[in-house]
Amino acid sequence: MENKRNTEQKRVILSAxxxxxxxxxxxxxxxxxxxxxxxxxxxxxxxxxxxxDDGTVRxxxxxxxxxxxxxxxxxxxxxxxxxxxxxxxxxxxxxxxVLQISDVEGFRVSSAQIEFTGVCPECQTKLN
Amino acid sequence: MENKRNTEQKRVILSAxxxxxxxxxxxxxxxxxxxxxxxxxxxxxxxxxxxxDDGTVRxxxxxxxxxxxxxxxxxxxxxxxxxxxxxxxxxxxxxxxVLQISDVEGFRVSSAQIEFTGVCPECQTKLN
DNA sequence: CTATCTGCAAATAATTTGCATGTAC
DNA sequence: GTACATGCAAATTATTTGCAGATAG
Lengths: 128, 128
Prior knowledge:
The structure is a homodimer.
Chain A (H helix, E strand, L loop, with lengths): L7 H11 L6 H11 L5 H13 L4 E3 L7 E3 L6 E5 L5 E4 L12 E2 L2 E13 L1 H6 L2
Chain A binds a DNA duplex through helix 3.
């Protein structure tokens, strides 16, 4: 029922998301707006929601309350820096197998999210 | 600077949270309200925020956008059922070591969150 | 053509804040 | 006594929705 037509707006939104760093819907809207003043905020929310529902993008619920979006759909974890606020994608590591778990005590798992909170290498350096 | 005084409201809020199931601030407010009609919604938000900041409770960013709170501070993962919406705490499992990771590619980890999304055992039974 | 989409503005819902009063220490 | 806490209502902010006009297929 969702996301049936290929529109200019959808192309612009997806392309902007691929070039952005885990933005919220509003942040992405502000970016898009510079080159597409007519594309509305409601459309950004609507289209991101559709994309998330049909698996084109991932919806992230990270520290900081606002929902963020990620165009990278391959399983990966996120590292959220408390200092600079940046979010890093991490595809490999000892946690990787957890992203593949399909059963937890009888609970049938369809997807897993891992978020690490802390301080990124760059901010560690600055703090010294 | 935060959470300096031990007030009746803080005691009521913490006690209600310990008996509730990962509620949002508003959900907890509705519960508390039944027995404490004078305790205000703003106080619930304010106190939960302080408790989260000083480590008394955990702030959860799970699927569903609204921030939830958890009085269980020991490291554990969450399983979120897509069908009934219930959230289950899971303390043991192959993912447990991930909750102890302190370094991810140079990123200094202070805390980790793991959320599994899927269908709980009870809902699996109902679906058959 | 016509079912979908979009833009706009108004509506919701969550969370925060200002400020006067209350109270823990 | 005084700094901190609370209640209330108003303010903000994020997100959703209704609807009329635009457009993909």
